[in-house]
Specification:
The complex is a heterodimer of chains A (about 300) and B (about 400). Chain A is about 70% helix and about 0% strand. With about 300 residues, chain A is an all-alpha fold. Chain A has two domains: about 1-55, no CATH class; about 75-310, MetI-like fold (Orthogonal Bundle). Chain A starts with a helix and ends with a helix. The relative contact order of chain A is 0.12. Chain B folds into two domains: about 20-135 and about 290-355, Periplasmic binding protein-like II (D-Maltodextrin-Binding Protein, domain 2, 3-Layer(aba) Sandwich), CATH 3.40.190; about 140-290 and about 365-405, Periplasmic binding protein-like II (D-Maltodextrin-Binding Protein, domain 2). Chain B is built from 21 helices and 13 strands. In chain B, the strands form four sheets. In chain B, strands 2-1-3-12-6 form a five-stranded mixed β-sheet, sandwiched between helices. Chain B is globular and about 65 Å long. The termini of chain B are far apart. The chains are: A mainly alpha (about 300), B alpha/beta (about 400). The interface between A and B is medium-sized, with 23 and 31 residues.
């Protein structure tokens, strides 16, 4: 009996006052609880845990023996880590510039109402369906001096032909770049194509009426209008570059010359699991998180902060 | 009537399940290694239990993280391979490993296991936690006889002669020294060169007594200078894996390789004969000694008395003389007990057995240093060997790496 009276009371009050904000769309909010919990516990919780333990001297098992910034000091004195950062910066800038330009140019070509557009789009996007491991293995064989391009050309008679980027510390990053571009450009092309399709047909008509050449319309009108697409593309490509790992493992495992193609994610894995030094691995992964944030925060500011002003 | 038939059927089906199943994880996947593991499995199955093979491909660097995460993640296997030393130390300290002291006492391991450092590496606070199965020593120089015959000079008998004749080998268009790109191989070669150039006493002072003044001293500086010259000999070997580098020696493209005694399996598979097609020089021919690393089995705690008994039976079996002979002949490694007869061993294994009997032994790097130091040195030395890093800079970095493990 008391239960019914208790249940009845809030109903009358809610009828009297406007319903509190949080009860609006209550079913949608309940449905989102598992995802919110996952995000909080696993992503945020795991991140905080990692950052906290990066200040300990944990080895094989996590221990709460805090040592301040020791792990970070050691990290930034390690030549392998510094080389990893340099490699990643080089790969990142090159990869970013080339995927975005090539992706955009391909999208423009695709947007000329060509025949068999679907077929071309499928072909271009197909590499993206392969994982980096598969991509890496395929290109490792293609670039292998004995069995790949170099071998084929030499067999045809040009015996002095040399093309072995993966065996030379000076060129190994270009070898990685070839595979990375092959895999990622199609995806950027599709994003750009979607952006181009979102441009109103009337703008093209207006440009044609004014007699503006096509290339100038793209540079002056279309590209500025596609700013959100470019920003999204940059963020997706950049965060993918920072966690670059599997492509390197499959193609070079960090070599040649020991560390000519080392990347930060490999350092994290090697020190967490092979060296049994969790603290050092956590410190390195915290630095990676920091660099992802450096990419993401300006984006979030532009995307969400901009709206309030505009 | 039908019921009894059914129970009879059930009984026969259930019979094999009476034997306790133990999953055993290891990273022995190459041809010779797999054959050696099959011997262990055969012996365990014959004793009435069931060996469930859990081979993990990709070498110890890939396998160990999987093993450790299974043990710490609450899904322990029945038994697992590690290199004895400090790799599993924290797991033992955390109480995740089965105490084998009673098995060791019942089977008199203290008396039969030779050298005793092997058992010391399994001992934590006076209790024994692992069963050693073999001895591998990393400091061997493998030479192709044919390369030297073609040039018309005698095959070197030690490291110094090897370095002296290297220009002639190079002039003949061959690579003097094969060295794979994987980091641990550079670390291994450096360890061997240390003993050859600086001698055993310096090696012991640095790695056993952990005397950092000696590590930073002129003897080690000389080793780094020597290694800086050696890396020029290996400039042309562009292979990744150790067995690819060994293959360069087998196919007479390279004159020599510094590699552990496991390289012998490759020569055997290729049908080469020790002393005739290839020459092996333990301790690089200068100091006849072996550093006794190797493999051991650890048994994670399972909280199941029946399985615990089976684990202890397996531990005793691994050390037993019959299994030791069968396993090590296939593996090409040396047995962990001095009282077994390896009459079928080839020339190189016999050289190893002689040194073993003479007691010229030091503990391995895996025993002396924790995996963190090992990994840092691997990273440093692969950079040193594969680039033109200055010797004094590498030396200073090496000393500070060692200091993180004190």
């Amino acid at each position: 009996m008391s239960a019914t009276t208790e249940a009845a009371t809030p109903r009358t009050t809610s009828a009297a006052r406007p319903r509190p904000r949080w009860t609006r769309n209550i079913s949608a909010k309940i449905a989102a609880i598992p995802m919110i919990a996952t995000a909080l516990v696993i992503f945020l919780g795991g991140t905080i845990w990692t950052v906290v333990y990066s200040f300990t001297n944990s080895r094989l098992l996590p221990r709460t023996n805090f040592v301040g910034f020791d792990q970070y000091e050691r990290l930034w004195e390690t030549s392998r880590w510094l080389i990893s950062i340099q490699n990643l910066m080089f790969y990142g800038v090159m990869s970013l510039v080339f995927t975005v330009t090539m992706g955009f140019v391909l999208a423009v070509l695709m947007d000329q109402k060509i025949r068999f557009e679907d077929t071309f789009r499928t072909i271009m996007l197909y590499p993206f369906a392969l994982s980096f491991i598969v991509t890496g293995l395929v290109w490792q064989w293609i670039l292998n001096p004995q069995f790949g391009i170099q071998g084929v050309v030499r067999d045809m008679g040009w015996t002095s032909f040399t093309f072995d980027p993966l065996n030379n510390p000076q060129t190994v990053l270009y070898g990685l770049l070839i595979a990375g571009l092959w895999q990622g450009t199609g995806f950027v092309m599709c994003l750009m194509l979607a952006g181009l399709r979102g441009i109103d047909e009337d703008i093209w008509k207006a440009a044609r009426v004014d007699g503006i050449p096509t290339w100038k319309t793209y540079v002056v009108v279309i590209i500025p209008m596609m700013r959100p697409v470019f920003i999204t593309t940059l963020v997706i490509v950049a965060s993918g570059i920072i966690r670059l790992y599997d492509l390197v493992v499959a193609m070079t495992s960090g070599g040649p010359g020991g560390n000519a193609s080392q990347v930060p994610a490999m350092y994290v894995y090697d020190y967490m699991f092979q060296a049994q030094n969790l603290g050092q691995g956590f410190a390195a992964s915290t630095m990676m998180l920091l660099s992802v944030l450096i990419v993401l925060i300006p984006w979030a500011y532009l995307e969400f902060g901009g709206k309030k002003h505009g | 009537m039908r019921l009894t038939k059914l129970t009879a059927l059930l009984a026969t089906v259930a019979m094999p399940a009476m034997a306790t199943e133990l999953e055993v994880t290891h990273w022995w996947t190459s041809g010779g290694e797999a054959a050696a593991v099959a011997e262990l499995a055969k012996a365990f199955d014959a004793s009435g239990d069931k060996w469930v093979d859990g081979a993990i491909a990709g070498g110890g660097g890939t396998a160990r993280p999987i093993m450790i995460s299974r043990i710490t993640g609450g899904d322990p296997m029945g038994a697992t391979q590690f290199n004895h030393g400090q790799q599993a130390l924290e797991l033992v300290e955390a109480g995740l490993m089965l105490d084998l002291t009673d098995v060791a006492e019942a089977n008199n391991w203290k008396e039969v296991i030779f050298p005793s450092t092997l058992l010391d590496a399994c001992t934590v606070d006076g209790r024994i936690y692992c069963a050693p199965v073999n001895i591998h020593s990393p400091e061997w120089l493998w030479l192709s006889n044919k390369v030297y015959e073609d040039i018309g000079i005698p095959v070197p008998t030690n490291w110094n002669e090897f370095v002296e004749t290297a220009p002639q080998v190079e002039a003949a268009g061959k690579t003097p020294l094969a060295l794979g790109n994987q980091p641990w191989q550079s670390n291994l070669a450096f360890g061997a060169i240390t003993v050859a150039v600086a001698g055993l006493d310096v090696w012991k002072a640095v790695n056993v007594e952990k005397n950092m003044d000696v590590a930073a001293g002129p003897e080690m500086a000389a080793v780094f200078e020597a290694a800086a010259n050696v890396r020029k000999l290996a400039a042309n070997s562009n292979v990744q894996d150790w067995n690819q580098a060994t293959n360069l020696v087998i196919t007479d493209q390279a004159a020599g390789q510094i590699m552990g005694d496991w390289a012998q399996g490759e020569f055997q598979v290729a049908g080469e004969v020790a002393g005739q097609d290839y020459t092996c020089l333990p301790g690089l021919g200068l100091n006849a000694y072996l550093s006794t690393g190797g493999d051991a089995f650890y048994f994670p705690k399972l909280n199941d008395p029946e399985k615990e008994e089976a684990q202890k039976r397996l531990a005793a079996l691994l050390v037993s003389p019959e299994v030791q002979v069968a396993f090590n002949l296939k593996k090409g490694s040396l047995p962990i007990r001095g009282d077994v007869d390896l009459a079928a061993a080839n020339d190189c294994m016999k050289k190893g057995l002689e040194i073993l009997a003479s007691g010229n032994l030091v503990p391995s790097g895996d025993m002396a240093w924790n995996p963190d130091v090992q990994k840092q040195n691997e990273d440093l030395l692969v950079e040193f060997f594969k680039s033109d890093m200055a010797a004094d800079r590498a030396h200073a970095q090496w000393v500070s790496n060692l200091k993180t493990g004190l």
